């Protein structure tokens, strides 16, 4: 009888029960976005230095991971196929934020030798040039390996963008097929992980915009090229200059 009442309430468009996992996950997503927006504004009020930006990016990662932990408790994920060395998701264009890009650039400078860093710069520049040469309708569909991919592994894995953190799959073979035929293949995934990363990224960008900084969605390769080639990119961005304008996604 109780089941029939619940069904009837749903049919008449009334709110789902409080125990409904989908309702709880939606609330978690909205709270993650709100928390990240408020934290971003708060941190930037305390100071605007490159170090503050790195701390902000690190906090963003921590918040996303904590939110994902809560999501898995509400709705346990299926068995995921994601493993070290599986890189099919690294052939897509990645949307990111200036704060994340600056964190990645700092990580590369801290962890790579001069030779390795130059090789990374070269790969980033080559990929950025290749993407720019493509027609606008080809850029989103082009399947080119990420410039940060080395021997099938992400060279900045600990500080990878939120968009990359959201990618997941229960079937690696479908991922491979998607790279080859993106219009015909749907990758089965754990939706809460994908959605939470999107909400946290949106909260970060909203907080940046509220703090009067460039909060646009940026294409990772083009933005990283700027961060690596412009010595004072962080300072200029913090001063309000549109230093990453050339990397904006439409």
Task: Give a verbal description of the structure.
The protein has 250 residues and is mainly α. It has one domain. The protein is built from eleven helices and four strands. The protein has helices at residues 2-11, 21-46, 50-74, 98-111, 114-133, 136-139, 162-166, 172-180, 191-210, 220-229, 233-238, and strands at residues 95-96, 149-150, 153-154, 218-219. The strands form two sheets. The chain has a two-stranded antiparallel sheet. It has a two-stranded antiparallel sheet with strand order 2-3. Helix 3 packs across helix 4 and helix 3 runs antiparallel to helix 9. The longest helix is centred in the first third of the chain and has 26 residues, at 21-46. It is globular, with a radius of gyration of 20 Å.
Short structural summary:
The chain has one domain. 60% of the residues lie in helices and 3% in strands.
Task: List strands and helices in order, with pairings.
Layout: H1 2-11, H2 21-46, H3 50-74, E1 95-96, H4 98-111, H5 114-133, H6 136-139, E2 149-150, E3 153-154, H7 162-166, H8 172-180, H9 191-210, E4 218-219, H10 220-229, H11 233-238
Antiparallel strand pairs: 1-4, 2-3
Helix pairs in contact: 2-3, 2-9, 3-4, 3-9, 4-10, 5-10
Total number of beta strands? 4
Number of domains: 1
Number of helices: 11
Q: Average pLDDT across residues?
A: 90
Alpha carbon gap, first and last residue: 51 Å
Instruction: State the major sheet.
Output: 2 strands, antiparallel
Strand order of the largest sheet: 1-4
Unreliable parts: 1-18
Order of helices and strands: HHHEHHHEEHHHEHH
Q: What percent of the residues sit in helical stretches (DSSP H or I)?
A: 55-70%
Structural class: mainly alpha
- Radius of gyration in whole Å, from Cα? 20 Å
Q: How would you describe the shape?
A: globular
Percent strand equals under 5%
